[in-house]
Amino acid sequence: MTEERPGHIPEFRPGHVPEFEDRWLLVAVAGALSFVAMLDMNIVNVALADISRGLHVSDATAQWAVLGYQLPVVALLLPVGRWLDGTGLRAALLTATGGFALCSALAAASPWAAWLIAARVAQGAFGALLFVLMPVLAIRSVRPGLRGRAMSVPATLGPLGAVTGPALGGLLLDQLGWRAVFLVKIPFCVLALAVAWRAMPRDGRPRRPDRRSLADAMLVGTGVAALLLALTLAPGTPSWLLLVIAAVPPLWWWLRGPGGRPVTDALRASGLFAAHGAVLALAAGFAAMHYVVALHLQRDDGISATGTGLTVLAFPLGMGLAGPVGGRLADRYGARPVAVTGAALTAAGLLLLVPLGDDWSPPEVALRLALAGIGMGLNGGPTQALVMGAAPPERAATVGSAVQLARSLGFTLGPALATAAWGLAGAGGDGVRAGLAAAGSESGAGAGPGDGVRAGLALAAAAACLAVPLLALPARRGRAPGPRHEKTTGAASAAR
């Protein structure tokens, strides 16, 4: 057995289980940073009106405080994953966390809108790096037999950050003003920096991106940014859908080129294309449900903002309680059956919302949301462990970035599709405006209850139901980009 340096995190090699100390402190760092990165996806939405007034700009300009972060996060995930597979984790983590905190401070200090948007775009680039780093850090910090528990930490805390963002943002906005929604993340980043500095071993200097990497980033960034803008802005102005056409050429060129082929090879080798589809479907169902329920309770049923917040809180509570349980079950019984069970419970909870009718009571809704939240908690960590455990070791960051891209697109696609379903089912223009208001785009008139609500919830439930067979499908492996590897322990065995 080779001698290992103190604090060294060895790379997992096929057929070999290294002996080293499990570093749960680093897993906690991965979870905390996952929470912060996802929190930033939603917390700024509630402050857009105040930003508009404070910086004396239009609502459309203020909206770029959100889009300026979301666009680089989604657009850079795949190029960042390819780059991380050849560079040191410690330096990358310290750079990403420090840059994220610095950009948060710059955004809070913004004297004008252009400054704010530039800071948010830079923060989104660092956020993309954080999103890809988190699952890789978690899976490399523990033995293979504990991957389910380790992956459940960032997989649970990340969505919890997305859910709690609006509530926390509203509290900060009322008490301290809009600049506080940017400052609140800095203490988490500073603490993560201190822990990572002491606990992570030095594993090499970061590799500088070459021209090929920069070209790949431009192609993927252009295509994914066009797609994201189309999904985000089309509910208010359908002509934005034309951007979907503009997204096709750069993404096609990238997929057919030297930058895209290693990504598709890694996904083919892992045999888990269907699992990525399940991640996207569950994220879309979750996002669609979240905005339809909150909108209907407050605007149509007359429930107060506090009552609505407490009702919707049932989902993250269920998810937070079930997340650690899902990780333990995955380590004991295998990741796939636990992930499928979680997706089925989520689908059941969303399906039970559809027949409630027009008059909802908060306890009825809360019980169904709690069931769906328990399902999401059981599903998150095992699904991450399933995918990451089946990834070729030299392509772990690439596969992790593909999972994060699927989840991010699902979070964006869900509200857009639910808004369209609401409008087509009879809510009309008010329903579309209300959907945009829920997404933070504009303030709109209240949408009428009835078929629109049921259509939006039916769409969310259908997306969650689709995830069940996708996760249950056995992995169909293709040829690996390198030597064929056998997975022998832990969550990786569930991918067979």
* Integer-rounded radius of gyration: 22 Å
Give the strand content. Answer: under 5%
The CATH architecture category of the largest domain equals Up-down Bundle
Summing up helix and strand content along with how strands pair, one would put the structural category as mainly alpha
**SS field, number of helical segments:** 19
How many discrete structural domains? 2
Query: What would you call the shape?
Result: globular
CATH level-1 class of the largest domain: Mainly Alpha
Main location: membrane
GO molecular function: transmembrane transporter activity
InterPro entries: MFS (IPR011701), MFS_dom (IPR020846), MFS_trans_sf (IPR036259)
Region (Disordered): 476-496
How does this structure look, described?
The chain has 496 residues and is mainly α. It has helices at residues 24-42, 48-55, 59-62, 64-84, 89-108, 113-140, 147-176, 180-183, 186-199, 211-233, 243-256, 261-270, 273-300, 305-312, 314-333, 335-353, 362-390, 396-438, 451-472. Helix 5 (89-108) packs antiparallel against helix 9 and helix 14 (305-312) packs across helix 17 (362-390). It starts with 23 loop residues before the first helix and ends in a 24-residue tail after the last helix.
Short overview:
The protein is mostly helical. It is built from 19 helices and no strands. The protein folds into two domains: 189 residues, MFS general substrate transporter like domains (Growth Hormone, Chain: A); 219 residues, MFS general substrate transporter like domains (Growth Hormone, Chain: A), CATH 1.20.1250.20.
List keywords for this structure.
2 domains, globular, mainly alpha, disordered C terminus, MFS transporter, antibiotic resistance, membrane, transmembrane, disordered N terminus, 496 residues, Growth Hormone, Chain: A
